[in-house]
């Protein structure tokens, strides 16, 4: 059995696709099934996929009409043959040892999920959104949500999932909507058993200026509200307690006047001078 099936939905990301595929085919863990779903691309993404598949027999390409990332992921969950499954967006990339580190962490602890850190990058800077100092394994639901910073960072792609468990649960990405991760991630964390976090390894998330999610049209705004409301309702209905979800305030005063304040939420901090000058952002 292949160790990991990597599922990559592709839609008009030719500008970034080679970087993504290079980071996967060059992983230190070579026992991979690489499933690329060309979701009706109209640029030269298809040609790039074909070029890579001719060089690497692990790459399987499926062409569909444009149905959206959720449909593409759902299409391949049942077809994946790997022991674990990983979802990668086609404009992102991985540390070279990302998949091997997560796989070893999952296998050594018999975990359903292994989680790595997240670095968000765009043209001018980068921001570490999630990182871990040490390996930690837990089956405590509240702690799983806190470690992954869910619902705020409800991303599916910085994790690997035991394929058999995913198929048994029958969880699917909600189709026809954006922010589908926000709905899926709380459910998969709740219904699976052990989870392991892995330190010092990162998924690199490229924040494109012209990405669909960056657009503020009516559907994006509506789906954003819908997904977050549904995620928060799931958390409330299942009595999940996330101690790091609400920010904590630390004040530094002189003669009763607040000169300096820190707002901390998980591993993110915002520094506030004189109540109005803000440096950083915990959101």
Q: Mean of the pLDDT scores? A: 87
Radius of gyration: 20 Å
Oligomerization state: single chain
Distance between the termini: 41 Å
Number of E-state strands = 14
Query: Poorly predicted ranges (pLDDT <50, ≥5 residues)?
Result: none
Largest sheet at a glance? Answer: 10 strands, mixed
Helix content: 25-40%
Shape: globular
SSE pattern? EHEHEHEEHEEEHEHHEHEEEE
Count of alpha/pi helices = 8
Percent of residues in β-strands: 25-35%
Structural class designation: alpha/beta
Describe the structure.
The chain is of the alpha/beta class and 283 residues long. Helices cover 32% and strands 30% of the residues. It contains 8 helices and 14 strands. The strands form 2 sheets. Strands 1, 2, 3, 4, 5, 6, 7, 8, 9 and 10 form a 10-stranded mixed beta sheet that branches. Helix 1 (14-25) packs parallel to helix 2 and helix 7 packs parallel to helix 8. The radius of gyration is 20 Å and the shape is globular.
Q: What keyword list fits this structure?
A:
10-stranded mixed sheet, alpha/beta, 8 helices, 14 strands, 283 residues, globular, 4-stranded antiparallel sheet
Reconstruct the topology from this structure:
Elements: E1 4-10, H1 14-25, E2 32-39, H2 45-55, E3 59-64, H3 69-77, E4 84-87, E5 93-94, H4 98-109, E6 113-121, E7 126-130, E8 136-138, H5 141-148, E9 159-162, H6 163-169, H7 180-191, E10 195-206, H8 218-237, E11 248-254, E12 257-265, E13 268-273, E14 277-279
Parallel strand pairs: 1-2, 1-4, 2-3, 6-10
Antiparallel strand pairs: 4-9, 5-10, 6-7, 6-9, 8-10, 11-12, 12-13, 13-14
Helix pairs in contact: 1-2, 7-8
